[in-house]
Q: What sequence folds into this?
């Protein structure tokens, strides 16, 4: 059961210390609220305009990324220090360190963006300073840097992209020329064994085989004619002049001999057909000899035989040379036909590489064209850009501080410390002060409890001590705070230092 009277007595007993804590915190809060310097905040509104000429490779979210980059560039340490030195933002605190200046600049600056589906992208840049003109100057400097950074970033990005694709096109062009040179060299080295020449080589191979067969047949015929001429001369002692026309019997004899040569390649020497042909040839030769012996124009002697044999030998030599040429060319053609398959695979690999390089080259040329267009768009300020909707003005009314909030925070802190002190003392106090605590401590049930009975003099003395302590708190603490404020350090400055040291401000 909650004993209200008991806790009230404890509150009265600890009231001087709690009151001291409350008064100190409330005094610090009140002095800080009263003496806190007025601050002025001003802002500029910027609009991210859509590009006047929309490119095919424009991506959603590029404006947000560009603004993120600009914001990070704007809040760099070097930029903030340059702005602070250029505009004398901290002219009233010349001893402030560089790190403190950067921290104060970042805490005093604010950049907010708003965007959404089917909504314009807006940016608001604000700055807070005790000097209204300084606040306006800083915001306008921020605005100038943002506009300059946006132009520089977009134009620089377009120029870098253009330079990259120019190098890429030049590199791929060199690779393509090198690949074309390899293909040309391969075709020159294998000019007779290329896939496009396969049909020609095969037709040429067939023609050469037919030509070789014809030449061999003609050589065989001349050799037979030579043998017949020698045999005829040996048998008759004369030959017919080559310039005279042949008689029908001579023509028949030549046909029978040619037929015999063909039959001998198929049938054996003792074949009935071979014997029949030899008999017919013998009969026809006797007729030819009889006609030759009665011919007055017949010439005998070795001279005519040598002349005819020489003509036949010359023709045979020419045919044999032609045959060797044809065989040599046939070997070359056959080697070319055999090598065509291997060359086709190698040439196909080279042409595939060429096609891949050509495809990359075409893509790079298209990207280069787009990069040139983008570079012209950015340099002519027809791309995405940031414009100023409302510039920063010098504020007439202070924006802070919120003095009521500061005073309320001091009072709240005093109440929290006083309450915390009361609870802490109650937790740390282990003495037995009530019957319930006696039973809980020793696990017994007392028959009777006799409280401490103070005399009237003790009661008056306790009240005098309590009232004296309260009076001392109400008088000495304000006097001490006033002396601290006037003689050592202003309370608001001391509060700021304590807050800064604790890392809360």
A:
């Amino acid at each position: 059961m909650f004993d209200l009277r008991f806790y009230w007595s404890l509150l009265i007993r600890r009231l001087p210390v709690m009151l001291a804590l409350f008064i100190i915190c409330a005094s610090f809060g009140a002095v800080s609220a009263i003496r806190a310097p007025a601050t002025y905040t001003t802002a500029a509104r910027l609009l991210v305009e859509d590009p006047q000429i929309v490119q095919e490779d424009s991506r959603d979210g590029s404006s947000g990324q560009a603004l993120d980059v600009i914001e990070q560039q704007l809040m760099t340490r070097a930029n903030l220090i340059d702005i602070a030195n250029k505009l004398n933002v901290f002219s009233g605190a010349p001893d402030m360190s560089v790190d403190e200046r950067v921290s104060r600049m970042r805490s005093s600056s604010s950049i907010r963006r708003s965007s959404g589906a089917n909504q314009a992208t807006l940016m608001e840049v604000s700055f807070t300073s005790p000097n209204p003109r300084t606040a306006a100057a800083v915001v306008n400097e921020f605005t100038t840097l943002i506009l300059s950074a946006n132009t520089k970033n977009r134009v620089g990005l377009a120029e870098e992209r253009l330079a990259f694709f120019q190098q890429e096109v030049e590199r791929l062009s060199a690779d393509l020329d090198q690949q074309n040179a390899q293909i040309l060299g391969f075709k020159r080295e294998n000019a007779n064994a290329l896939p496009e020449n396969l049909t020609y080589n095969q037709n040429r191979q067939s023609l050469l085989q037919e030509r070789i067969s014809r030449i061999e047949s003609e050589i065989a015929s001349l050799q037979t004619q030579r043998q017949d001429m020698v045999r005829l001369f040996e048998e008759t002692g004369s030959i017919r002049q080559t310039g005279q026309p042949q008689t029908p019997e001579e023509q028949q004899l030549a046909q029978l001999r040619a037929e015999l040569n063909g039959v001998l390649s198929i049938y054996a020497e003792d074949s009935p057909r071979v014997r029949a042909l030899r008999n017919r040839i013998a009969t026809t030769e006797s007729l030819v000899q009889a006609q030759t012996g009665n011919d007055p124009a017949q010439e005998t002697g070795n001279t005519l035989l040598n002349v005819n044999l020489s003509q036949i030998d010359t023709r045979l030599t020419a045919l044999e040379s032609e045959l060797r040429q044809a065989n040599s060319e046939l070997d070359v053609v056959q080697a070319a036909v055999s090598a065509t398959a291997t060359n086709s695979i190698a040439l196909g690999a080279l042409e595939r590489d060429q096609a891949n390089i050509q495809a990359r080259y075409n893509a790079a040329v298209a990207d280069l064209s787009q990069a040139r267009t983008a570079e012209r768009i950015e340099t002519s300020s027809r791309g995405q850009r940031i414009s100023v909707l409302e510039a920063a003005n010098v504020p007439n009314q202070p924006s802070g501080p919120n003095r009521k909030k500061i005073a309320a925070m001091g009072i709240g802190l005093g109440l929290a410390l006083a309450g915390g002190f009361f609870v802490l003392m109650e937790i740390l106090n282990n003495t037995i002060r009530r019957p319930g605590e006696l039973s809980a401590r020793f696990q017994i049930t007392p028959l009777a409890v006799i409280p401490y009975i103070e005399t009237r003099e003790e009661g008056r003395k306790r009240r005098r001590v309590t009232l004296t302590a309260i009076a001392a708190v109400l008088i000495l603490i304000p006097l001490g705070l006033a002396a601290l404020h006037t003689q050592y350090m202003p309370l608001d400055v001391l509060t700021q230092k304590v807050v800064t040291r604790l890392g809360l401000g």
